Amino acid sequence: MANNQTVDAFPHLGFGIGLRTKHYEWLLSHSEWGVDWFEIISENFIGNEGYGRHVLDTIRTVVPIVMHGVSLNLGSTDALNLEYLKRLKQLADELNPKWVSDHLCWTGHAGINTHDLLPLPLNEQSLEHTCNRVEQVQELLQRTLVIENPSSYLEFKQSTIPEWAFLSELVDRTGCRLLIDVNNIHVCSVNHGYDPYVYLNQLPVEAIVQCHLAGATASGNLLIDTHSKPIAREVWALYRHLVNKTDALSTMIEWDADIPEFPTLVAELNKARAIAAGDDIPEGLSQKETSDHPISNPIPI
């Protein structure tokens, strides 16, 4: 495997926010942002040479960026999309992000993109398949890939490996690194009935280079990873547990629906700063609010 990044090549970036179009005007009109770095959605900038790229190019002269993808389709049995990977590499070569990440999931089949991050059965066969795909991607990108744990709403009867063990094996076999989404662990622990602290305690801490924080929505008996609310107290508690296990953790907030103004996001991010510095968990919402309508992402057919 061609691997141009060592552990030391994943620096501690501090505290960041996902770059979203809603905040472009605010960012360009202010010189003090209150964040250490930004994460971009890779697909939003592949082939984008317009205003969004102008904003991004302005930002990356001031603070570091990382690239986060949603279309790598690692778990699918479809062949890897080489044209997509070519364009992803071109973007990475142009932007020089600190790292490139995507998800442990599949996103489509037979050329159809569901625009969702779908779970895969976690067993030895899918582990070998995913390892082969990660190695191919790393060879093509000439970068170490960072893999995120997904949120999910069902589990497969064919699964024989806990997700934390699956991720650990993926790291051992491919040299990839991990983006741990603490909210996704909380969501899945509620949906599937496991102890989230067991999950965190079994992860290879030395492989974790980034953390996501977000807010979910209760819908019936499930939690849905909507990225549309303040971070729940349960997630802050998990974050503190993870921070206490790591030397330094590049942390960011994802907020993708009902997006507040940028200063409000910075205020939420500052809670993570305070926890990482040893402060108590902030008073906040417990995960009890329930949506009064179904939440879904229909698959086009």
Q: Explain this structure to me?
A:
The chain is of the alpha/beta class. The chain has a single domain (11-276), classed as Alpha-Beta Barrel (TIM Barrel), CATH 3.20.20.150. The chain is 35% helix and 18% strand. It contains nine helices and twelve strands. The strands form three sheets. Strands 1-2-3-4-7-8-9-12 form an eight-stranded parallel beta barrel, surrounded by four helices. Strands 5-6 form a two-stranded antiparallel ribbon. Strands 10-11 form a two-stranded antiparallel sheet. The longest helix has 18 residues, at 124-141. The protein is globular and about 50 Å long. The chain starts with 14 loop residues before the first strand and ends in a 25-residue tail after the last helix. Residues 290-294 and 297-301 have low confidence and may be disordered.
Note the topology.
Layout: E1 15-18, H1 24-29, E2 37-41, H2 51-59, E3 65-68, H3 82-95, E4 100-103, E5 106-109, E6 112-118, H4 124-141, E7 145-148, H5 163-174, E8 177-181, H6 182-192, H7 196-202, E9 208-213, E10 217-219, E11 222-224, H8 233-245, E12 250-253, H9 262-276
Parallel strand pairs: 1-2, 1-12, 2-3, 3-4, 4-7, 7-8, 8-9, 9-12
Antiparallel strand pairs: 5-6, 10-11
Count of helix runs: 9
For CATH, the homologous superfamily is named as: Divalent-metal-dependent TIM barrel enzymes
Order of helices and strands, N to C?
EHEHEHEEEHEHEHHEEEHEH
Q: What level of helicity do the residues show?
A: 25-40%
- Spatial gap, N to C terminus: 37 Å
What is the structural class? alpha/beta
Rg, please?
A: 18 Å
Q: Please give the largest β-sheet.
A: 8 strands, parallel, barrel
Domain unit count? 1
Would you state the CATH class?
Alpha Beta
